[in-house]
Automatic annotation (TrEMBL):
Single GO molecular function: uroporphyrinogen-III synthase activity
Protein name: Uroporphyrinogen-III synthase
Pathway: Porphyrin-containing compound metabolism; protoporphyrin-IX biosynthesis; coproporphyrinogen-III from 5-aminolevulinate: step 3/4
Key words, A-Z: Heme biosynthesis, Lyase, Porphyrin biosynthesis
Stated role: Catalyzes cyclization of the linear tetrapyrrole, hydroxymethylbilane, to the macrocyclic uroporphyrinogen III, the branch point for the various sub-pathways leading to the wide diversity of porphyrins. Porphyrins act as cofactors for a multitude of enzymes that perform a variety of processes within the cell such as methionine synthesis (vitamin B12) or oxygen transport (heme).
Pfam families (alphabetical): HEM4 (PF02602)
Gene field: Uros
Family statement drawn from the similarity comment of this UniProt entry: Belongs to the uroporphyrinogen-III synthase family.
Recorded superkingdom: Eukaryota
Amino acid sequence: LSHPECYGGLVFTSPRALEAIKICLKENSKNEAWSKSLKQRWNTKPAYVVGKATASLVEEIGLSPQGEKSGNAEKLAEYICSREKPNSSALLFPCGALKREVLPTALREKGIPLESLTVYHTAQHTDLQESLSSYFSQQGIPASVVFFSPSGVKFCLQHIQKLLGDFINNIKFAAIGPTTAEAMEAAGIPVSCTAESPTPQDLAAGIQRALHVQNC
């Protein structure tokens, strides 16, 4: 972040990457440098994002997001490729350890340099199983279960399957987007609906349609 002159812009595909950036900027010396000059220098370059949640966090650190309507990595890659020239300065991509290769591969094929930097790791919450068991015992069997990421499927699904038992065939499973839906299908879970875009409104509309079919 201290060397905007080395990069052609920024790429963010998750709110967690922005949380990592904000932790960096909390240090007094870096915060001052960011406010005095770095923010303005980065603002002369694009900050590409997926989704509104990530865009709002980009705005919080004083940058102007682009591409928020893309909704997923595939569409963001198309958007970036339409705006960037091959062999220009690399785009800095702070990302998670579990990032997919869709965006890096698409940019590489177009000759657009991307420098990936792992800034967070995804891990299972220590209280996950206990929290799920507590929910089911207090609230009963839900009408629908929504997954927001492939890692959510990876960490939660086995526990949910045990808790649902034979009721699993009565549940409508929803996905926030196509990437999560693919992970659900790979795990053998039927996807009742996928949000048209990763927003609360589109997700709610998809769940409502899925439950209406079931007359819930």
